[in-house]
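Table 4 source record.
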Amino acid sequence: MTLDGLEKAVHSAVPRRSRVNFVRYADDFIVTGKSKRILETQIKPVIEAFLSERGLTLSPEKTKITYIRDGFTFLGQTFCKDSNKLHITPSKEGMLAVMKEVKRIILKYRSAPMPMLIGRLNQTLRGWGNYHRWVVSSRAFRKVYNYVFQQLWREMKRKHRNKPRKWVYKRYWTSAKGLKAFSVKYKMKNGSKKIYQIFKLSRIGAKRYVKVRAHANPYLKKDAQYFNNRRHNKKSKIAMTWGDVPAGSVP
């Protein structure tokens, strides 16, 4: 890719005592260092020169030099260090984006069957929730779910204008699948009834990601057991073993 080699250029620009680290995902990257001066006077010029050779420039909107205690956003998550503890949470911009998408879906499927509306909302909520399940996300999950409740409540009140609030709540917020949430019973073609329910983000649960060993390789036979243990299934076999490596490749 175009940015291949940038990490090497950054590390070779300063001595190790500068504590410069480089993290990249596709065309987005962050660089951390011992001081703001090092990043401004030594690292940034190297990055600009590297990009200039390839006809690229740093984006002024996305480029920022700040202290980690003030926080920064990367890949939809906010990183902030307080009292020597790093806090990673879903970014406010990401929360606003998913809320905007929830509102758009409700308006778009206003006249559609309820199962279709619930299914589309669940896709959005599950996708966003699973992405942030590895960080401190319980507060963000509550805010987003409360917003979903408010939007659905407003829509159901509009749909049943002549019905009292208590009737609307009992009709749509019922106990199903072990929890109380917005749900509807839909009659299937065979006469049976199926319950469709809004997915509660709190059901995802927080999980802390365990970093993969730096030198572990899923293509090496000696690391097969390590990756099997990570999958929590000791009986499973690794997808590609030493004998499966294509000819001419270097494992």
